[in-house]
Write a structure and sequence with these properties.
The chain is α+β, with helices and mostly antiparallel strands. It has two domains: about 500 residues, Cytochrome p450 (Orthogonal Bundle), CATH 1.10.630.10; about 160 residues, no CATH class. It has 25 helices and 16 strands. Strands 10-12-13-14-15-16-11 form a seven-stranded mixed β-sheet. Strands 1-2-7-4 form a four-stranded mixed β-sheet, with helices on both faces. A three-stranded antiparallel β-sheet has the order 3-9-8. Strand 13, helix 23 and strand 14 form a beta-alpha-beta unit. The longest helix has about 30 residues. It is globular, with a radius of gyration of 29 Å. About 45% of the residues are buried.
Length: about 675
């Protein structure tokens, strides 16, 4: 959980006026008999807080752990905390002492926004929590209900696709569009419809989650009544909660009235939505601990935090990583288009067969877990690894560090979905180097709901569209800066250019996984001494242009600079139009590829599968045309033996529309 501190001048002021009273209090008391884990050096009053300023807390904690070990003690003002950064210690804490540290740390923001901790995520470990967790698993987000929400997911995914379709060819803020999808999805599941005040509610909840999910000065010095009164965020959060209350109270009363008059739920086709279920249980009189309207609102807040914020953040990270790793996107798209073929859309049932997409999502959770630090609080004293962990100690399991530990992960900073092939690591909290949904008593009960809200829309985005970066950007330019908050989201929006992919392309990709390799490759280098290196070009050429106009449109391409600098570009000569998924990944290492269309192939559409694969790996595709076409190209462009490079072929319309990238093909690869 990231720590958010007020501006320095305000911190200085509050520290000054509180200094005398705080030093007298018991914040620094420590039994001489306790053996705490190692710590970095600390300052009077603030303890180790200065070590966490300047970078996101999960990164600061990871850097400290490299020096002070996998279990570390920090004094955060008056709050005593331990930080866990290794698989074995995480297992000892979350499995061996699960109940001993099953509480959540207290926070002013969470107390306000989660209705005095009466939700599930931040409730103390007690009978109320056990009752509400059981309701969540059995009644709200059961596997049966998650499947029943499928029609809503498909409908909202269609709205997302239509929204993107209307902006094809232009840069769009995909981050915002995905967040709009997840918020609409959560609204319909919760309330049975998209609220007219949805945007206001989402804005307030999003801001409340950001403020309420961080720690502030008053949380670090809980004994100071003055800091409680002068809390940095308290008054903002109280105002926001009053606004949220007015919207949620209206919706709850509307549901009550509808249930009383129609005896039906407010969900799709008269079924129950989340609020209906909670009201039914509230009115049944069968609960051991009765629930109030405020309790219902706290559960709603949990749903929006997980179903909206976490799901959209995961999709956003996955798309950003695939844009940085085009070979991953190529494999994912090839798999989806092979499975879906000509159906025209991805259905929930299709998602279960998309093995590589599931690996992509797994890898996204590894490098970008929704919650960077899993917070616990000790209900009782316990010992671990020879150290004493006192009562009320805050326990922070650095989830982000576990997923990037080189002891457990090969090339941990690289995005490699294949690492999860043929191994048993899963989401269920039993592999402690990989616990994106937590583990033990506090394992996330909404995991299946969250996964479903990620898998289907991500599959739809990859099936229906090809994606490229705005002009002038390359994959290394994608901003992966993390934002501060309860979840690790990207700081800035992801702007991409979508182009529609005709679903019929799926038929060209059949057998892409089953085709066996048949000596498809011969390699050749292209250096500055190669003939024709000055003619590496980029230009969209209309079919209506004359030969002279086409010839005059040839412009030098940025790759020319690489050749001038003495760099050697590597190409590959392909004799097949049906590369396997593994072969597609291999292509990502080449700068260009020549596709032989001279021997027995009728037209450009026969090469579509291969071209789509090349485009997805950012490998320039050169068509080696039949003799008649090559002769025409030679005369029209006066470039000698030549090929025509197609940057994207995703429909018959785009195939007719343009020829681009004209350059020589070295004589060594001619037939």
């Amino acid at each position: 959980m990231d720590i958010q501190l007020p501006p320095f001048n305000f911190v200085t002021f509050l520290l000054f006026i509180s200094f005398v009273s705080l030093l007298v209090k018991a914040g620094w008391k420590k039994s001489k008999h306790q053996r705490l884990p190692p710590s970095p050096w600390k300052l009077p009053l603030i303890g180790h807080l200065h070590h966490l300023v300047g970078t996101p807390s999960h990164r600061s904690l990871t850097n400290l752990a490299k020096k002070y070990g996998p279990i570390m003690h920090l004094q955060l003002g008056e709050v005593s905390a331990i930080v866990v950064s290794s698989r074995q210690i995480a297992k000892d804490v979350l499995k061996g002492h699960d109940v001993a540290c099953a509480d959540r740390p207290e926070s002013i923001g969470m107390k306000i926004m989660w209705y005095d901790y009466t939700d599930i995520a931040f409730s103390p470990y007690n009978e109320y929590w056990r009752q509400m967790r059981k309701i969540c698993i059995m009644e709200l987000l059961s596997n049966k209900n998650v499947r029943a929400f499928g029609s809503i997911r498909v409908d909202e995914a269609s709205r997302l696709l239509n929204s993107i379709q209307s902006s094809c060819g232009e840069p769009i803020n995909l981050t915002d569009k995905v967040f709009s999808f997840t918020s609409a999805m959560t609204c319909r599941v919760t309330f049975g419809k998209v609220l007219k005040d949805k945007d206001t509610l989402i804005r307030l909840m999003k801001k409340g989650i950001a403020l309420g999910g961080g720690l502030e000065l008053a949380d670090l010095f809980p004994s100071s009544k003055l800091l409680q009164v002068l809390s940095w965020n308290k008054h903002k959060l109280l105002k926001m909660r009053r606004q949220v209350d007015s919207i949620l109270d209206f919706m709850i009363n509307e549901h009550k009235n509808n249930m009383a008059t129609t005896k039906k739920g407010n969900g799709e086709l008269g079924s129950e939505d989340i609020v209906d279920v909670l009201l039914r249980l509230q009115q049944s009189g069968k609960l051991a601990i009765p629930i109030t309207n405020d309790n219902i609102k706290a559960i709603i807040f949990d749903l929006f935090a997980a179903g909206t914020q976490s799901s959209s953040t995961t999709i956003d990270w996955a798309m950003a990583e695939m844009m940085k790793n085009p070979h991953v996107m190529a494999k994912a798209q090839a798999e989806i288009r092979q499975v879906v073929k000509e159906k025209g859309t991805v259905e929930d049932s299709d998602v279960q067969t998309l093995k590589y997409l599931k690996l992509v999502i797994k890898e996204t959770f590894r490098v970008h877990p929704p919650f960077s630090v899993l917070p616990r609080a000790c209900r009782e004293e316990f010992e671990i690894d020879g150290y004493t962990i006192p009562l009320k100690t805050k326990v922070m399991v650095n989830n982000w560090a576990l997923g990037r530990d080189p002891e457990y992960w090969d090339e941990p900073e690289s995005f490699k979905p294949e690492r999860f092939e043929n191994n048993s690591i899963d989401f269920l909290g039993n592999n402690f180097e990989y616990i994106p949904f937590g583990s033990g008593k506090r394992f996330c009960p909404g995991m299946n709901f969250g996964l479903a809200n990620v898998e289907l829309p991500l599959a739809q985005l990859l099936y229906h569209f090809n994606w490229k970066l705005p002009q002038g950007m390359n994959p290394n330019d994608i901003d992966m800066t993390e934002a501060e908050g309860l979840t690790i989201s990207r700081k800035n929006g992801l702007y991409l250019i979508p182009t529609p992919c005709n679903p019929s392309v799926g038929r060209f990709l059949k057998d892409v996984e089953t085709q066996k390799s048949k000596n498809k490759y011969s390699e050749f280098p292209l250096s500055s001494s190669s003939p024709g290196h000055k003619k590496f070009n980029l230009k969209i050429i209309s079919k209506k242009q004359s030969a002279a106009a086409i010839a005059s449109s040839v412009q030098s391409q940025p790759l020319k600079a690489r050749l001038k600098n003495g760099e050697t570009l590597y190409g590959i000569f392909l004799l097949s139009f049906s590369p396997t998924l593994a072969e597609i990944a291999d292509l990502s290492g080449y700068d260009f590829a020549v596709v032989d269309m001279e021997h027995g192939h009728g037209g450009i559409f026969d090469a579509l599968p291969c071209l789509c694969a090349l485009v997805s790996t950012n490998t320039a595709a050169i068509l080696h045309l039949p003799e008649s076409s090559a002769t025409w190209a030679k005369k029209a462009l006066d470039l000698g033996p030549q090929g025509i490079m197609i940057p994207m072929i995703d429909s018959r319309k785009s195939a007719r529309k343009a020829i681009s990238y004209c350059r020589f093909v070295p004589n060594s690869v001619r037939g």
